[in-house]
Design brief:
The chain has 6 helices and 5 strands, in the order βαβααβαβααβ. It has helices at residues 16-31, 47-51, 56-81, 95-107, 121-127, 130-137, and strands at 7-12, 35-43, 86-93, 111-115, 141-145. The longest helix has 26 residues, at 56-81. The protein is globular, with a radius of gyration of 15 Å. It is found in: Cytoplasm. Belongs to the universal stress protein A family. Residues 4-146 form the UspA domain.
């Protein structure tokens, strides 16, 4: 089976696994002359428990922090590869739903490449693995990344 993936989604959470997935997703996008969407989802399900009610300034700071992180990732990739068809996105919501359903529908995603894990063991126990959920429920192909661009184990 041969698929030429053109619309690749790489969701990120700041983990080394997610950044390895972005690097590999960029290589696929370059090879296929496709588009790479890097997505950060601000988890609103934790706002009530962790943050309470957030002011507009607090929300702006959170979004600005995510955008700065995404800009750094894009700059790193484009500097290293020369690839520029990279788009950054920040969304609010439940990461499982946004990554699995909402974003792929809006951007016609045909491949999701994401890190194997990004959360602590305690968080995975409480809310479950986002990667596992996406892998089980997404309508498009999903690649779970466990190694670096050079296929070496990722150290925490």
């Amino acid at each position: 089976m041969y698929n030429e993936y053109k619309n690749i989604l790489a969701p990120v959470d700041g983990s080394k696994y997610a950044e390895a997935a972005v690097a590999k997703a960029a290589e696929v996008a370059i090879r296929n002359e496709g588009r790479l969407d890097i997505l950060s989802v601000i988890n609103t399900t934790s706002f009530g428990f962790t943050y309470g009610v957030l002011s507009d300034d607090a929300i702006t700071q959170i979004v600005d922090g995510e955008l700065d992180y995404l800009k750094d990732l894009v700059k790193k990739i484009s500097t290293k590869t020369g690839f520029e068809n990279i788009h950054m996105h920040v969304r609010f919501g439940n990461p499982k739903n946004v990554i699995t359903y909402d974003f792929p529908k809006d951007y016609h995603t045909d491949l999701i490449m994401m890190g194997a894990t990004g959360k602590s063991a305690a968080e995975r126990l409480l809310v479950g693995s986002t990667a596992s959920y996406v892998n089980s429920h997404a309508k498009c192909d999903v690649m779970i990344v466990r190694t670096s661009l050079k296929n070496q184990p990722i150290t925490k």
